[in-house]
Amino acid sequence: MLSALLLIPLTSAIVICLLPKSLPSQRFRSISFVVLTIIFGLTLSLLADFDSSLGGLQLTEQVAWVDWLGLSYHLGLDGISLPLVLLNQLLTAIAILSSPDKLERPRLYYSLILILNLSVTGAFLSLDLLLFFIFYELELVPLYLLIAIWGGPRRNYAATKFLLYTATSGIFILAAFLGLVWLTGASSFDYSVLPAGALPIGTQLLILTGLLIGFAIKIPIFPFHTWLPDAHVEASTSVSVLLAGVLLKLGTYGLLRFCVGMLPEAWSVAAPVLVIFAVISVLYGAFTAISQQDMKKMVAYSSIAHMGYILLAAAAGTHLSLLAAIAQSVSHGLISAMLFLLVGVVGKKTGTRDIDQLRGLLNPERGLPIIGSLMIVGVMASAGIPGMVGFVSEFLVFRGSFPVFPVATLLCLVGTGLTAVYFLLMVNRVFFGRLSDIVTNLPPVQWRDRVPALVLTLLLVMFGLQPNWLVRWSDADAARLVPPVALAQLSSAQVSSSQLDFESPKHPQLATPNP
User: Could you report the per-residue pLDDT of 213-222, keeping only the tens digit for each?
Assistant: First the structure.
């Protein structure tokens, strides 16, 4: 079943390339959307076979591939990867649906999106380190081309910068993987059999440093973030949805799977340093977002700030914080995708994203009232308003991290307040007040501009009101990830059960087990 999630987009991409180029762009979009609908349905069907109470890898597939290299085709699913695979299929379908009607070279465009979907899914499912690296690097090619061909005026600069940064990320990750296999004397790159914990702590820290640099570039974490705003500003709306909603999650997934999962002792040693970078990322991203005039650039810097919460939660290393890191990954993916979609609609209909030039878009007659209302919902979710999934994920981050890093958690709470500041500034300037002169004779908003945002709004509210539907799939695996050192620290600190327990009759899966 897992292989089907890779074979279907691959086969479909090949078929689309072979179709006559005389077909209209809308036909290629319809075919691609049907393919992603099928893939999303297959991924949903995995929920029926997945036992969330067990934890550990399930539905595994393994075939020997290149024995002399130690490379095997090994796929599997657990509570860390399942939510991200579902997120990838959903946002890819939304990106296809929101693609323009008239598109140059549509065969190549939709084939690249399908290959991108394949590579990200493969990375999330891979249980062989070398196989993960292959999929991790494979996604560079389609994303580079999607930005370089269909991007904005400075698309070549942004695409090249993205390629250089992400290729450097891959170099550090590959070096760490090769060093890990060589130093442990393992005969394969299989994640489940590598005895990484047997290495001396100094060696573990060296390998962890390579992995951290590689994944920090991908997330991105300050000071490795500079490629992201340029990529977002120059990328098309659909590509920005995939970049923020899915591609950045490869970095957070790598932190949880390979850094915390394979090197827990070294992770606990490095955690106090990592939390400093988390705080800097949160505050830097928030303060920089306040100064932006381009709506898209503001959302891009907001994304950097919110990804810092994931690093804070992962560094804390408690059951609740690790569960929060997974939840925040999904929450950020949904919220950022919605914001980029709506900013794209505003830019397309008005011809600008400049906050100083736009006014009164909530006007019910001549403005964009539905788009403006949905934007307010997205902003509320990003600011952590109760009833939205953003509140749930951020509350879990702060509650799980506070017992370990109280000062850092309080500083990151400031970032939440700053989120409300810069998004309220944007909403107040762009959507309220009198209509600006530029907002005249706006073209009508099509249903394809509204439906994706409406679907995401439904999910933001649904998971906000019933968070157990989101976190129950990852609870057992989050408990398995907790580093032994973190458990000992919490035990020695004698944190009261009232501080640790997050159990309620409605959400029993959120309980933190006693060490």
Answer: 999 999 999 9
Pairing of strands 71-77, 58-66: antiparallel
Q: How far apart are CA 135 and CA 79, in angstroms?
A: 20
Q: Within 13 A of 57's CA, how many CA atoms are on the CB side?
A: 18
d(Cα 481, Cα 143) in Å, to the nearest integer? 31
Q: And the tokens for 377? A: 């919902």
Burial group, residue 202, by CB count within 10 angstroms (0-12, 13-18, 19+) = exposed
Is the preceding peptide bond at 223 cis, omega within 30 degrees of 0? yes
Return d(Cα 192, Cα 190) in angstroms, integer: 6
Q: What are phi and psi of 340, to 5 degrees?
A: -65, -35
From 232, 201, 372, select the one nearest 302 (Cα to Cα): 232
How crowded is the C-beta side of 374, counted as CA atoms within 13 Å?
26
- Per-residue pLDDT tens over the stretch 120-171: 999 999 999 999 999 999 999 999 999 999 988 899 999 999 999 999 999 9
Query: Burial code of 20-58, b = ≥16 C-beta within 10 A, e = fewer?
Result: eeeeebeebbebbbebbebbbeebeebeeeeebeebebb
**Whole-number Å distance between alpha carbons of 222 and 216:** 8
Question: For residues 200, 201, 203 and 209, what is the CA-based torsion angle, rounded to 10 degrees?
Answer: 160
Q: Which two tokens stand for residue 285?
A: 């991203």
Give DSSP secondary structure letters for 379-405. Answer: HHHHTT-TTSHHHHHHHHHHHHHTTT-
pTM of the model: 0.90
Q: Give, in degrees to the nearest 5, the angle at Cα 181 between 180 and 187.
A: 165
Three-state SS letters, 250-312: HHHHHHHHHHHHHCHHHHHHHHHHHHHHHHHHHHHHHHHHHCCCEHHHHHHHHHHHHHHHHHH
- Note the pLDDT of residue 12: 94
Tokens of 109: 């465009």
